[in-house]
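tokens incoming
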């Protein structure tokens, strides 16, 4: 066995990564000053008096995400404009100087409480780039400021499942650039919220490489440790037409963990992928996008390729100026949840035990078009290639071929009728440890809206 493959077999997820992976599907809430200025990236100069969501209802946000099947929510507590959705003691640029709730409101607190009541995991996004804060660019001074704000969020709002950082690092109001003290940020999170994963620019969860919902054919969780460093050291370096900056990450490469990719690499880590995209073209709410909500077909496609492709799915749903998720988005989320629940409510192999040959006897002829596979990732990621077959007239017929499995792999195909189904592992790094082998027939709603 190659040395790199043997090394890869010894890499397993931390408990925090395992808990995160089991969430599978959760929501992003982009809400703040940009919601009221109709911008995506604000400049930090908008008047706090503009922030006044008179109908804000955090329970409606949580209920809408939960209806889609999401198990968590990450809130943009502070975006690049520096406006804070909680009454931070370290800046005046926050909800405490807005007319909302007469300056006594706390969006972060209301969302955290709504999540707790609904049994949803709660996470925070805190932008290191702050286009309002005068100390930005005075690196030691600003790093202390940022740590103080991070401490507020990590100590006042209960259990945090994810701290989500992006790599934006543009100029501050003084025209200077900041050197972020990532190690100090990470140390504080580990101290105050040891169960929280640090995502994207962090050591626990990596960005899939784009914001369009595109996924790799093979999404490995065991990758070179250099990818963690690549995420952290990248800065915002390329301007785009609308004056914003675009991040450039090596994680956009298509092959991160195959035998070829890890050959000769001595330092490997468990660094699973998250797929993030928005239900609309923008990340913040814009009224002109009310008729541009992603279709059910698009959302199902991303779900199957992310959750069903050994990654997690982070779907952004931006509340409007009322402080509510728009009716069009709510309807689509309910539709998505209905389709997924109907598809996965009946496992046709629920009472059958796979044999040593990894075969399922469904007991009778059954029609199905989905197979869900999973590895016991507490023992690592092992499967490199597999195929599925069904028995027809005393012969085994191949109907699906794939590469990685990982935590979860959802295989989609045209409907098949059979009594016996077989999983064959074609290539593996060691003895495969199968934790899931389930068979389903997709819902009528799903079959009307998505192709395999």
């Amino acid at each position: 066995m190659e040395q790199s493959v043997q090394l890869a077999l010894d890499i397993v997820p931390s408990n925090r990564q395992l808990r995160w992976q089991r969430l599978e599907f959760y929501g992003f809430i982009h809400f703040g000053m940009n919601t009221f200025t109709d911008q995506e990236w604000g400049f930090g100069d908008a008047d706090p008096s503009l922030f006044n969501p008179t109908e804000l209802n955090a329970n409606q946000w949580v209920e809408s995400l939960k209806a889609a099947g999401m198990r968590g929510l990450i809130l943009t507590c502070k975006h690049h404009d520096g406006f804070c959705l909680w009454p931070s003691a370290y800046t005046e640029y926050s909800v405490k100087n807005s007319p909302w709730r007469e300056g006594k409101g706390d969006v972060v607190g209301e969302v955290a409480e709504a999540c707790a009541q609904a049994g949803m995991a709660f996470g925070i996004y805190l932008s290191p780039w702050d286009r309002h804060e005068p100390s930005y660019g005075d690196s030691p001074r600003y790093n202390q400021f940022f740590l103080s704000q991070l401490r507020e969020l990590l100590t006042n709002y209960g259990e945090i499942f994810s701290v989500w950082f992006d790599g934006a690092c543009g100029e501050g109001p003084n025209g200077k650039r900041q050197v972020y003290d990532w190690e100090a940020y990470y140390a504080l999170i580990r101290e105050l919220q040891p169960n929280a994963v640090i995502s994207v620019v962090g050591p626990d969860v990596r960005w899939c490489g784009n914001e369009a919902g595109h996924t790799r054919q093979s999404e490995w969780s065991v990758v070179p440790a250099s990818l963690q460093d690549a995420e952290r050291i990248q800065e915002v370096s390329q301007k785009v037409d609308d004056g914003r900056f675009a991040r450039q990450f090596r994680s956009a490469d298509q092959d991160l963990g195959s035998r070829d990719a890890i050959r000769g690499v001595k330092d490997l880590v468990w660094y699973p992928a998250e797929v993030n995209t928005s239900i609309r073209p923008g990340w913040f709410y814009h009224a002109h996008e009310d008729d541009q909500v992603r279709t059910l077909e698009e959302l199902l496609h991303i779900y199957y390729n992310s959750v069903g492709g050994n990654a997690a799915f982070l779907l952004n749903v931006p509340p409007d100026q009322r402080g509510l998720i728009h009716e069009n988005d709510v309807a689509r989320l309910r539709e998505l949840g209905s389709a997924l629940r109907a598809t996965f409510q009946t496992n046709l192999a629920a009472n059958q035990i796979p044999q040593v040959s990894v075969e399922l006897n469904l007991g009778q002829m059954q029609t199905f078009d989905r197979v869900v596979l999973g590895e016991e990732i507490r023992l690592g990621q092992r499967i490199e290639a597999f195929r599925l077959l069904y028995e027809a007239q005393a012969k085994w017929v191949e109907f699906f071929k794939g590469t990685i499995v990982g935590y979860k792999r959802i295989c989609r195909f045209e409907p098949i009728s059979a009594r016996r189904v077989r999983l064959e592992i074609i290539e593996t790094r060691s003895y495969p440890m199968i934790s899931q082998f389930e068979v389903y027939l997709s819902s009528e709603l799903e079959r009307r809206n998505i192709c395999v």
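note: The two ends are 36 Å apart (CA to CA).
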